[in-house]
Write a structure and sequence with these properties.
With about 325 residues, this protein is an all-alpha fold. The protein is built from 13 helices and no strands. It is a multi-pass membrane protein.
Length: about 325
């Protein structure tokens, strides 16, 4: 029983800090101390500066085991593709409306890597896990964007134009730029002055707490009460099916310990907030996309903790 309670405590230590920051954001919004404008501006600050600094500092100062990283990235890409094609098959058979199909598929395969995933990994493994999570975020984010364009293109418009637009967004994505820059400078042994590195560290340290507070402040509980069939089905796929597929894929690739933990934690997150923005921009059912975001944000705290207990008890992470 000691091992079981150790696993429970580990799950609590990983998920509860994120839950408390989300609730703090809810309390600040309800008390009028922050508003939608603040959250919008703070989210831009986090995305453009905070998270890139966090990823750069941790990657630049970490020893990266490329052999393990390649297996982790291959497993992550394989799990994402299994979820994508499985969701496409399900949508073809059970989702009648064209504008619902892409939103459903995206809700199943696209996890929140940059905020919730990195927060879970940091709480679980510290800087060692964060370095692995940073590379994972950069590579899998590219795959997410390409697959999202493919599945949402059925809603109308030129798929080629949308692919070009997303390609440009990928090239100029601050997170991906920071990851490539850190890996390149590390490989070429290019140093960074200590004052600059410390400043970047300060900026990076505010990113995850601020992002979680803003996520809590913008969380709409009413969306939880509007569970359409598509929203509920996609949420089940994201919260239950996606983590199971990730673990099965990780086992097939021989992962265990930190790599398996990173793969699971990155997969056990809510749907990415960007899914709503992309669905709305590309003519998908944006109401269903918002509902999926709300349901999975709430549900992931419990499903992720349950999975952590099981995997930790089995010695897999």
């Amino acid at each position: 029983m000691t091992g079981f309670w150790d696993a429970v405590w580990f799950a609590v230590s990983v998920t509860v800090p994120s839950i408390l920051l989300l609730l703090f954001g809810v309390a600040l919004r309800r008390s009028g101390q922050v508003d939608a404008h603040f959250c919008m501006q703070a989210s831009k600050l986090v995305f453009n500066y905070g998270l890139p600094c966090l990823l750069f500092v941790n990657l630049f100062g970490s020893e990266i085991h490329y052999g393990e990283q390649i297996l982790l990235l291959l497993a992550g890409a394989a799990a994402t593709l299994v979820l994508f094609f499985g969701a496409e098959l399900y949508a073809w058979r059970f989702v009648p409306a064209a504008r619902d199909k892409g939103v459903f598929v995206q809700g199943v395969f696209r996890s929140n890597l940059g905020i919730m995933g990195l927060a879970f990994v940091l709480n679980a493994y510290g800087s060692e896990g964060l370095a692995a999570g940073a590379v994972y975020t950069g590579v899998i984010t590219i795959l997410f964007n390409v697959l999202a364009v493919i599945t949402l293109s059925r809603s109308g418009g030129s798929a080629w134009q949308k692919l070009r637009l997303v390609g440009w967004k990928i090239v100029t994505n601050p997170l991906i730029v920071a990851i490539v820059l850190a890996l390149g400078m590390q490989a070429l042994h290019i140093g960074v002055p200590k004052p600059l590195l410390q400043t970047a560290n300060y900026v990076g340290n505010i990113s995850l707490p601020l992002a979680l507070i803003c996520a809590g402040a913008t969380f709409d509980m009413r969306s939880m009460l509007k569970m359409s069939d598509i929203s509920l089905q996609a949420s089940i796929g994201r919260l239950l099916v996606a983590p199971l597929v990730a673990v099965a894929t990780g086992l097939a690739f021989g992962l265990s310990g930190v790599p398996m933990g990173v793969l699971y934690l990155m997969s056990a997150t809510p749907v990415a907030a960007a899914s709503y923005v992309m669905a709305r921009a590309m003519g998908g059912n944006d109401v269903a996309a918002a509902n999926i975001t709300g349901i999975t944000t709430f549900g992931a705290m419990f499903s992720a903790a349950a999975g952590i207990v099981v995997l930790r008890s089995l010695g897999l992470m």
